[in-house]
């Protein structure tokens, strides 16, 4: 409408002024409701052609859309294992920090496993003390067996010397007895040495392995115990938390609620433009948005990224062949917008529904001296008619509350 009125100022109005003051035709007589087309045919035709040209140029080089949303993610509050709720630490719609506990499940079996693992660690420590005592006893046994063996060897050596000297004071049976005693005490010493080696092996390898196993079981049991407490994975606000003590929560059957991160969706908007804008919208372009959550306010934006694929072409492997005619609606170009100035969009809650314009700027191209005059004029016209689109955006923002609250019944 605004474009048509502007075009009428350069077509229909001059045609009417010519016929009224140059040809002397008067409204209501020569120019009436029935002769208006014939009398103003050149102005009306020119207005229609110019309006269509301006509107086409305007919407092509300065794209607009009604589909602008600030998407935000949510984090599902789920335990790692199922169980009944024992204690709840937060309330619905409460702001929680990263790592803050939200609720706790029953943990009787997990605590029993932790205590059992602690008992195994204590048992391993006690076994180490007993083994160290056994090692001391084995060393003492070796010393005693060595001394007894040395004494028996000396007695055997003395009797053998007397026998070799032909003394009648020694008997052969006594020599045999000492030989058997030496062999016996040598075996006792070897047994004591083996006992020392076995005890040392227990101290060096077996008992540490048992303690390591007990520590691993303690860590595993403690990890299972920690799973009974559900912590906030991000800083955010708890929503839809409808828990009561005694409720059964499962990571598969029933989530506890959702957590909305405080930074998600803030100061970042996603706009869907028609596919005609694919070759026009580029990162760095300036735009404007107006949102229903903050009426009568225009927020300058800048294009930070343009998605290089169109969602309507997304496919998943299936047992059916694709048929392009099944795509009833063409997909849109996803454009990411951020505020041109910091802090201007902080009052907009995530999920706000907005409208947006993006403006083509040929200022840098106009500095190229190699451009022809008609080309420069065309670029100037393209940049200038962006003002019309900006005015149209502001007019729509003025009418938005009336349209929403009055004509749409507040929906």
From TrEMBL:
Entry superkingdom: Bacteria
Protein known as: HlyD family secretion-like protein
Organism of provenance: Roseobacter litoralis (strain ATCC 49566 / DSM 6996 / JCM 21268 / NBRC 15278 / OCh 149)
């Amino acid at each position: 409408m605004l474009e048509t009125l502007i075009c009428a100022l350069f077509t229909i109005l001059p045609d009417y002024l010519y016929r009224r003051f140059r040809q002397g035709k008067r409204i209501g007589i020569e120019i009436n409701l029935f002769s208006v087309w014939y009398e103003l045919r050149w102005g009306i035709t020119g207005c229609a052609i110019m309006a269509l040209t301006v509107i086409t140029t305007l919407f092509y080089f300065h794209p607009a859309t009604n589909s602008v949303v600030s998407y935000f993610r949510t984090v599902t509050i789920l335990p790692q294992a199922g169980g009944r709720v024992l204690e709840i630490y937060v309330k619905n719609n409460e702001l929680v920090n990263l790592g803050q506990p939200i609720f706790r499940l029953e943990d009787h079996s997990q605590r029993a496993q932790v205590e059992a693992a602690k008992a195994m660690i204590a048992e391993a420590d006690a076994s180490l003390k007993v083994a160290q005592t056994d090692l001391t006893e084995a060393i003492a046994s070796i010393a005693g067996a060595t001394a007894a063996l040395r004494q028996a060897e000396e007695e055997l050596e003395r009797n053998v010397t007397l026998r070799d000297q032909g003394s009648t004071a020694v008997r052969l049976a006594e020599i045999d007895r000492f030989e058997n005693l030496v062999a016996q005490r040598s075996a006792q010493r070897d047994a004591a040495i083996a006992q020392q080696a076995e005890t040392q092996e227990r101290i060096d390898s077996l008992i540490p392995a048992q303690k390591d196993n007990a520590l691993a079981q303690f860590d595993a049991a403690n990890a299972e115990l920690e799973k009974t407490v559900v912590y906030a994975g991000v800083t955010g606000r708890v929503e839809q938390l409808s828990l009561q003590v005694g409720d059964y929560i499962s990571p598969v059957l029933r989530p506890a609620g959702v957590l909305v991160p405080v930074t998600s969706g803030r100061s970042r908007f996603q706009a869907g433009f028609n596919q005609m804008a694919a070759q026009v919208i580029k990162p760095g372009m300036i735009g404007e948005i107006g949102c229903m959550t903050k009426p009568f306010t225009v927020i300058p934006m800048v294009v930070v990224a343009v998605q290089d694929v169109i969602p309507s072409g997304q496919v998943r492997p299936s047992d059916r062949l694709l048929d392009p005619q099944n795509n009833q609606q063409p997909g849109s170009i996803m454009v990411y917008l951020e505020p041109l100035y910091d802090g201007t969009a902080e009052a907009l809650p995530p999920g706000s529904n907005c409208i947006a314009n993006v403006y083509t700027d040929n200022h840098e191209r106009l500095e190229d001296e190699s451009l022809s005059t008609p080309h420069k004029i065309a670029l100037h016209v393209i940049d200038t008619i962006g003002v019309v689109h900006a005015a149209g955006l502001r007019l729509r923002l003025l009418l938005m509350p009336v349209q929403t609250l009055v004509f749409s019944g507040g929906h």
